[in-house]
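Researcher: We're teaching a course module on how sequence relates to structure. For the next exercise, students receive a sequence and then see the predicted structure as tokens, so they can try to spot secondary structure elements on their own. Here is the exercise chain.
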Amino acid sequence: MLLALAALPLWAMHYFVLLSASKKAPAAMHALLRGHLLLLPRVLPFYTVLVGFSLMAHKEERFLSIAYPHMCFNAAVALKTLTPLGTWAVDMLRRGGIGRASAGDVRRWVDRLSLGVLCVATLVGFARMAALGTYYGAPVRVFSAVSLLGTQQEGQLLPLGPSVRSLGRSAPHGTPAVERRQTVCMGDEWHHFPSSFWLPQGFDVQFVRGAFTAQLPGDFTPVAQSGSLQRSTSMVRTDFNAVNLWEPLHALNSTETCDYVVAAEYPGHAVHLADPKVWESVECADFLDAQRSRVLARVVYVPRRVVNLLQALQGDGRPWQVWGRLCLFRRRLE
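Model: And here is the predicted structure for the students to work with:
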């Protein structure tokens, strides 16, 4: 991130260095200046995205996916620019009688810095991926269990639901034949539903009204009603708004019509939807409570032993990590 932010200032410094050098050898420096100017429109998009998202009141990490390629490109430009700038700075110092470093020394320093940045970025990337899978992988594991409800493999994970091509043709292997459609309900954990996940045929997702008061996702118009998949995904609906206001048609008021409920339970917090007298758990997975965990221990993967050591050294009683469970509940048979 820091290298990406430094790309434009370093580009400007290199431009002025080339501009001053072109006065002494205009023919030789013309091609370098032209190539350097071509970098400018490729460096600016990162700053445009950064300013745009900084001005937005509501931001989520997934919104920044369009910025990551630009950030990597800018960081590469910054590292590449360090070599000519460093060579120029060393040359100016040597002319002033200061220092004995050569251009080869500058290249070696920049190469070591580049290697260090790549190693650190790789380690942080792996630590982040491990954190996402370990801390927040519960929704995928829990919803994968929905595919095997009512089968002999109930309680195991996978297979997932149907693909786009098989949707509407035949039920996937292992999916129970249901006499009526089954409803899987979610409350305040609605945003943890895996966006690329397909429930088995015969199952629908419904949201139950909770503490969230903005606009919830809605269903596409059924193909049987619209006449084609294209119309279902393109027709204009009246139950949506552009100001993120609550739409009552997108949520149920209670769990009375739900066959299954996905809810989270955290230490000291009662399960909002799943009354144990009415519901029994089918599948549960550990889930990190990000709001009550420390930043370092929720952003990158930290082994449990290290977390316990940090907790002991801190000594203020505030936990580094708070764990809960995300569970799939089934309505008890009366």
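Model: If you want an answer key for the exercise: Residues 305 and 311 are 10 Å apart (CA to CA). The longest strand covers residues 279-288.
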